[in-house]
Design brief:
mainly alpha, disordered C terminus, 414 residues
């Protein structure tokens, strides 16, 4: 098939098919759109289409087409972590009290610790799960990060779909997820330095350059953004062409700088979003988040799906069950227990824990980075992608296990 025609047809499929399925009421009520997008990527990969109709797969997904998809996919990842940074606002986290602090810390450290412990057992029992460049500690830490992820943008979408966005539980979930994200991105940056820069002795210089760049963004760039993006800060919030160019230049330029400094580009993209003034961040999210999630990210999901290799005879089912169970228990225990100790009802504690174990596309981004860094193997990559689908798929039903409690407007915990 002509590469251009194949690319255009594939674009139509990956944009339209998941959305049409999601619009079916019985599906949309229980399944987040992102799960359908990830599943389509897996279906188009070698595990389904490649196995059932190999001739169609090879003619449709040619090396040239896959290369074009991959290029758009990584462009999507940079923009996605930028949008994730836009959701983070340090001002919103202040004044929430000790309850929020304990819930936020426990909801990331408990699953992280459980993941690290499980990783050492997996490394001993199933050494094929480790990547070629992994050390025991880099493998354990990478696996622990994957187990502790909460997908902030997907969580916000689920809260909107379930009409929980303005509830106390919804606001707690968003705040805790934001803390989770910033903590885990820092860990990912350190992990990638450990895997790549430590051997050559460049890790200290990369950390120093990263710290200098972060201070530059906070104290030199951020104060000037309201003036540079005056239209986006106005009452009507209109983002002009000039504003858009500056925003995109900051997003991709920041990603390029941290990549060149020896840190991963995800750090630069995330920080560029996190320093945006709140009014500008809200306008960007309102204008471009749907575009990114409906058009750009599906390209990344297809690229991910092409790398998923499901082999029923490899014992993957047993490992998948253990990994999924520990991932869910870690998030539930790390959220429900501190929530109860801080005085929340069982109902709200359960709903909060159920929301926090949503992993979505954030998990897919993390495990793809780990695979590219050769910290995990393709077998573990496959397991973690399926785990991300399963935990995200179960988020809505788990929240609906308990009836919604009448709640006042969002309030801080004491």
């Amino acid at each position: 098939m002509d590469p251009v025609l194949a690319f255009l047809l594939l674009t139509c499929i990956i944009v339209l098919v998941p959305y049409l399925l999601w619009r079916i009421p019985v599906i949309g009520r229980h399944v987040p759109l992102v799960v359908l997008q990830i599943l389509l990527g897996v279906v188009l990969g070698p595990s389904v289409l490649g196995a059932v109709v190999p001739g169609l797969s090879t003619s449709f997904l040619t090396p040239d087409t896959v290369s074009r998809i991959g290029a758009v996919g990584w462009l999507a990842v940079v923009f996605f972590v930028f949008l994730t940074g836009l959701h983070f606002d340090a001002a919103d986290l202040r004044g929430r009290g000790r309850s929020f602090t304990w819930i936020s810390i426990a909801s990331v450290t408990v699953p992280l610790a459980m993941g690290v412990l499980l990783a050492f057992w997996l490394l001993d029992a199933f050494p094929m799960l480790s990547g070629e460049r992994a050390t025991p500690w880099s493998f354990a830490l990478g696996f622990g990060v994957a187990m502790a992820v909460t997908a902030l943008p997907v969580l916000a979408g689920i809260l909107r779909e379930m009409d929980l966005l303005q509830t106390r539980v919804g606001q707690l979930a968003l705040g805790a997820a934001a803390v989770n994200d910033i903590f885990l991105w820092v860990l990912m940056a350190l992990l990638l330095l450990m895997a790549g820069g430590a051997v050559s002795g460049t890790a200290p210089s990369a950390l120093l350059l990263g710290a200098v760049y972060l201070l530059f963004l906070i104290f030199a760039v951020r104060p000037r953004l309201p003036r540079l993006l005056a239209n986006a800060c106005s009452k009507d919030g209109r983002i002009s062409e000039r504003d858009l160019v500056l925003i995109l230049a900051l997003c991709f330029g920041s990603a390029a700088i941290t990549e060149a400094a020896g840190l991963h580009f995800i750090v630069g993209g995330f920080v560029a979003g996190a320093i945006m003034p709140k009014r500008i961040a809200e306008q960007i999210l309102r204008s471009f988040e749907s575009f990114a999630l409906l058009l750009l990210m599906p390209f990344f999901f297809v690229t991910t799906g092409l790398r998923v290799e499901i082999d029923a005879g490899s014992g993957i089912a047993t490992i998948l069950f253990i990994v999924t169970l520990v991932a869910m228990l870690g998030k539930l225990a790390g959220t429900i227990v501190p929530a109860r100790l801080c005085g929340m009802s069982w109902r709200d504690s359960w709903r909060l824990g159920s929301l926090m174990q949503c992993k979505g596309l954030m998990e897919v981004v993390v495990v793809t980075i780990l695979l590219d860094a050769e910290i995990i193997s393709i077998e573990l990559f496959t397991i973690l992608v399926i785990m991300a689908i399963a935990t995200t798929l179960m988020t809505k039903p788990m929240v609906r296990v308990v009836r919604a409690e009448k709640q006042a407007s969002p309030a801080t915990t004491s």
